[in-house]
Amino acid sequence: MVGVRIVDRRFDSKNKSAVNRSRFIRRFKSQISKAVAEAISKRGIADIDNGEKIGIPAKDISEPQFRYGRGGVRRDVLSGNDQYHTGDQLDRPSGGAGSGGSQASQEGTHEDDFAFQLSREEFLNIFFEDLALPNLVKTQLTRIEEFKRVRAGYTQSGVPANINVVRSLRGAAGRRIAVGSPYRKALRELEEHLARLEACGDGDTREAQELRREIARLQRKIERVPFIDTFDLRFNNRIRIPAPSTQAVMFCLMDVSGSMDEEKKQAAKRFFMLLYLFLRRTYQHIEVVFIRHHTQAFEVGEDEFFHSRESGGTVVSSALELMHKIVVERYSSRVWNIYGAQASDGENWDSDSPHCRDILRDEILPYVQYYAYIEITAVEPQNLWHEYARVRAAYPERFAMQRIAGLPDIYPVFHELFRKQLA
Amino acid sequence: MVKRKNKPISTQSDWTFELIARYDEEIGRVARHYGLDCYPHIIEVITAEQMMDAYASIGMPVNYHHWSFGKHFLATESGYRRGQMGLAYEIVINSDPCIAYLMEENTMMMQGLVIAHAAYGHNSFFKGNYLFRTWTSADSIIDYMVFARNFIAECEERHGEEEVERLIDSCHALLNVGVDRYKRPPKLSLLKEKERQKEREEYLQSQVNELWRTLPVRPGADKDEPPARRFPSEPEENLLYFFEKNAPLLEPWQREIVRIVRKIGQYFLPQRQTQLMNEGWASFWHYTLLNHLYDEGLLSDGFMIEFLQSHTNVLYQPPYHSPHYSGINPYALGFAMWRDLRRMCEAPTAEDREWFPEVAGGDWHETLDFAMRNFKDESFIAQYLSPKLMREFRMFAIVDDDRRDKIQVDAIHDDQGYRALRQRLSDQYNLGSREPNIQVWNVDFQGDRSLTLRHFHHQRRPLGDTRDEMLNHIANLWGFPVRLEEQDEHGHVKLVREILVDRRRTR
After folding, report:
1. pTM, 2 dp
2. Complex-level ipTM beyond the 0.90 threshold
3. Superfamily in which the A247-417 domain is placed by CATH
4. Which segments of A144-261 does DSSP mark as H helices, in order?
5. CA distance, residue B467 to nearest chain A CA (Å)
6. Which entry of A374, B148, B432, B446 is 20 to 30 Å from B337 by CA?
7. What are B425-455's pLDDT values in tens digits?
8. Contact at 8 Å (CB) between A57 and B378?
9. Looking at chain B from residue 264 to 293, which residues have their Cβ under 8 Å from any Cβ of chain A?
10. Which of A6, A20, A107, A111 to mutate to probe the B interface, most B CBs <10 Å?
């Protein structure tokens, strides 16, 4: 009897169901997109590394079969009789018709949603479908100022430090063989001739003497072939290729003065979160700088940014100045892609707004990839909005502004700001 | 206490390939000792993810692509991640050689249990039971699945994924009414399938064309015309088969896909008809085989305790008022019935002799083997469910008639109730009474080409809320108006639903 055949399949065909899975997602795209948009509103910024568990209505994805509905005569055999006798009459359990308590209890649970897990990739793809970072491609091509050096074969000239010894000696050996071989061939023939003469006892004849001289001459010639020549030298070659920067920094600027209530802050948070998620899709490394301000601006941690509340007036320019300072000190725009997002309720000291406009236009916008301003207010725009509108006129491709009335507007506004532009 | 002369095969919970081979050898030896007749088998070790894959694509190692399998995968995955549900321990494929999957994460005990349960239990059932013998061709199913996947992939390339998907959706909806319950299918074979497919395409199309030919009627011929010809001449229960052969607007490749889905559905019919027997049989044998090995001293006490724990979990029958109750657990009842059969042979009581004179005191190997080969759930229960088991399960039967205010208990586990209970439970396992009986009644092929389906009422039970959706799927396949009639038990017929489509116009 031979032993059983055991096949180890653990390492083959991973992700066999990926096709079926992607078909499922394609087919229920609209329901899934909706669920994703809902899910996003429930998460914190930090909490996006996982895929998202989402649920879509089970009735939309049911696979129907012919089956019985309620009514008519149903018969059933059950187990665990503890009290009944033939002929007993029972009340119908509420909910389920007829099979004891089972159906009623099942109906109590949430069967209406089909819940499943999307991978982070799938989640973000669905969420940011049809969106694009404005100017991303253009700025990458025009503003590449980072280079990295990569190996690119060998050259015949270079600095001694870059000599590649193996390559050089290999070339030298080849050259020595090539240059010396005619002499060696002649030498071999003469030596054989001489050996024959010596074997016949003619070693002292004139012919032999002549041969010896000739042999010595050839040997000298061979020795004179240089062991290594400048011609043999090979140098490691390195070239510089432009490297697009893969890191980004995102500035979140928020007004925390008395007029920004909790609801407005929540709206701002959603917005920042969306931007963060969105950037995450494009850049390998992202840093987030939180700046909150009332009459003064401070750089704070995420927690404090969203949760503490100050009162008092508003000087928006303080935040812009701080952002500028941080950019200059820590984020050279040559290696960083800089994004700015500012949220405010639009209130500002009247005399400060023109100042904001100037800082933004002259000191910030030249360095950033994109700057988005959202104003969370239901009332008419005030002076800050009007000043910013003039900035927009100057930098239409890098600066965007939108007004949000409440939480439900966030997503459409975000879509609006980052709409894929059909070039 | 049996004297232990052997050392346990293993005592740790990690498995190795050597240990699996060793366990398989010992279990196989004992299985042969008991005369189990199995296909040769292959053991495949897979990861949890692969198990979910296999589970989602109806247990087949190869299958065509469809979103519904993706849906099942996601459902299984999220259940598994939440820890709500353990994965099925085992998937075993009714093929020759039989393939049993072992999951990497399992302990050595679980691997042993699955080998005994699947590679010997289910395997011998597949090989022996008459339904599997007549309905499935174990030697060619994998080839057929390969053919199906390639054919459907080709169609997707040629006609577009979505078009194919819509068609498969409709076919899947009709799976349960796409089986022959009485006829026997020809053998499946990859080569023959391929060779014949082309032929069949042409032939089928010509037949359909014949059926739908519209020749100008010669003047004067009217008088001799026979009364309207009925089509089909007999009502057809296999809706998918009917569409494959007769739907007027399907193209040859579409007919082939209908056929593929139908064939695969047919292949799984025996599994649905013998679930209780099959699972009970496999459980009976893992229990018997592992206990035998334990008695020989080859299994450690730890192994046995772990085994019994998982064994009893699966075979638990909650009472009707428990929140976990969802009908009679087929594993529990199946296992109990096989054990009971053995008991009746080995230690019959007076009651057994009265109820089962042909079984009581007989040879248990032969009795079980005979029962395994020649029954399905419905007849197995009708034949072998003993009063003792009905008492043990404390079974009772209820009638819920919507014309009465209350549910009535009409039989319990007592002398008056045994036969009725057994009959009722047997009925419950009859697929014919579990699923609505819907047949193709007539095609108006001289008029508007409409298709009439008839639902034959059983106990006045109406169709569920999927009815309209189902009719849409049927209309999608048929391409012309579809009507659904109901015929009650007194023969009265009424039209319940009509869907007016004419796919020619939208094309």
Report:
1. 0.70
2. no
3. von Willebrand factor, type A domain (3.40.50.410)
4. 165-199, 206-224
5. 6
6. B432
7. 999 898 878 888 899 999 987 788 899 999 9
8. no
9. none
10. A20
